[in-house]
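Notebook, p. 212. Picked up where the previous page left off. The plan for this session was modest: take the two constructs that came back from the sequencing core last week, fold each one, and keep the raw output in the notebook itself so nobody has to go hunting through shared drives later. Recording the first one now, exactly as returned: residue sequence, then the structure token string.
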Amino acid sequence: MRLLKPFANLGLKVLAVAIAVFLWTVARGSSNVERAFDIPLTIHNLSEDLVVVGQSADAVNVRVSGSMVALRNLDPEGFEYALDVSGAKPGRSDYEVDVTRFEFPRGAKLVSRSPAEISLNFERRATRQVRVRADIEGRPAQGYRIGKIEITPPRVRITGARSEVLRISEVVTEMIDVTGATATLEREVRVSPGAGHVWADEPRTVTVRVRIEPEPAPEPAAGGEGTPPV
């Protein structure tokens, strides 16, 4: 009986394994797969007289098909969907999403995109001066009280969607905590018109001086100790 040698034809076996691995790699690399990613939306050529107060999407989702090799070379970080809104007017405008402008790697092709259309709402821009109110929180130390509050400048300019700007009569500063204070405080803080499509123009910060003063001594009650008898 002839015994089989464990290392007989070792070279052929190694070659066969190498060929199998190569064929598997080629097959895997040539088979089509799909990959989806979001392309952020950026707005270009917006008129200085308008403000965007609403949009139906912040990004465009695309699905691309291709070989693993092709999709491995696809870097979505460098993509953005630049939406040209030149000529826009107050109200709603709809824009068709056109992704044919993007150049995908060889071997990759676009399968779908969502949404197919982006809607934007525009409103006239307005500007006005409003007063500043300091947001004071807490209580000074016992025996002290809050005195005069000085804000420099006392008024700032805000800009934004006309309907929202006309409803705002004041902006509020960041919170200033006076808890336990025994001396006058001075802080440089930012101002905010609140949520919405309004922002503060320069200056965006103000200086707030909160005077902390001793509470006045209580006056003696009438008819108390030391009052001469009638």
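Okay, moving on. Second construct, recorded in the same format:
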Amino acid sequence: MKALFAYGADVPLTRIVADHRRWLVPAGLVLAVNLLVLIAVVLPLRQSAASASTRAAASEQELRAAMGELQQAEATRDGQQQASRDLDRFYADVLPADLPSARRVTHVKFSQLARSHDVVFQGGASTTEELRDSTLERLRVTYSLTGAWDDIRRLIYDLETGADFIVIDNVQLSEGQQANAPLSLSLELSTYYRARNAESGRSGPEADGR
């Protein structure tokens, strides 16, 4: 040990190693083993842990994306089912079931409504129309009526707010030739019905007057 710490002593390195071989060799072996463990075990484990963490994060992100897509698909499915139920309810409860029912709505009920408002039928015509790419057909009617302005206004209001599905396509008013003559009303209406029940009742323009 004196040779190691002697001031100014010139001691060869080989002698130092030879003199302290008993503890240098075990220390070197321990250091070598630690290096081997670090290279062969610790570093791969650290890389594996980092890769596993990355894969777990990616898997969690994919799971969240899949759950979001599933929820969106379920919402779309539920929305389509609700729309289908609403459409079936509209067909069953709102629209006329067939052409005779559509005629009752646009002529019989409407004529009763007109009489209740003191509006007089002068004549009318109707025609049916096929709708492209649809299970529905359209019944169009045109009526000529006469009456006072207030009565006509109330008739149109009750027609628009009534329970029957009737669309007002056009309204034309004109004054009579005489001073106190009632107003003339030309009214174009439409309604729709199931096409499969209308084949036997389809016709061209026909009179619907009183």
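Notes on construct two before I forget. The beta strands are 120-130, 136-147, 167-174, 183-194, 206-207.
Flagging for discussion at group meeting.
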